[in-house]
Amino acid sequence: MCHIPGVKKKNKNKKNKNKKNKNKKNKNKKNKKNKKNNNRKNKKNKKNKKNKKKKNKNKKNKNKKNKKNKNKNKNKNKKNKKKKKKNKKKKKKKKKKKKKKKKKKKKKKKKNKNKKNKKNKKKKKNKKNENEKKNNNNNKNKNKNKEKNTKKNKNKKKKKKKKKKKKKKKKKKKKKKKKKKKKKKKKKKKKKKKKKKKKKKKKKKKKKKKKKKKKKKKKKKKKKKKKKKKKKKKKKKKKKKKKKPGITWLDVAQEDRRAEENAVASKVKPPSSRAHRRLLFQFGVTFTLRRCS
Question: One Gene Ontology cellular component annotation (predicted)?
């Protein structure tokens, strides 16, 4: 087929080249990722191998130490057994010697005890004899005193009998006078006490009930009025703060759009005044000039 003038040829080769280039790029990306992953895996495996070697070394060293310690302990135990046997034999010999000495000491102690006991017995006997003598003397003195006292008491009783007859006559006269005075005083006191108690109890009960009811009603009304007034004042202060004017980001954006539209219509640059730039810097935006085409 010959080429027809005025008609463009289809560039098939260009399309194929583009596909090949894309495939190459994708392959290269995959290969890079695989290399990175392989490197990470290899590093981990190396670390694990090192750790295993260290663990195995530590185990071997521990086993060696334990074997040495076991052998040492065996030797120590053998030596200790021998020492114990020797010490037992020595102790037996010492015990035999001590027993002989103790027998001699016991005999001496018995003699000394017997001497002390004899002395104590003598002392006790002497004390008993002394006490008996004292008691006998005391008893004799007591008997003498009793005889004296009996005589005195007999004489006292005789005197008392004579005195009692005279006292009886005097007591009769005194008793009559006392009885008359006591009866008059008791009757007057009882009547006065009963009248005073009844009047005081009735007056106190009525006054207490009236005072309690009045106090409770007044306190409840005052508390409710104070709470309502405080709530109204807080609401008025919040409304005044919201009415204050301020420049927002929307106001600045609207001014930029209007300036661009006017510039396109008249084919003139948009305004770039210093005041306009300052507003933009406050909101953290950098200013860039856009020339109209």
Answer: nucleosome
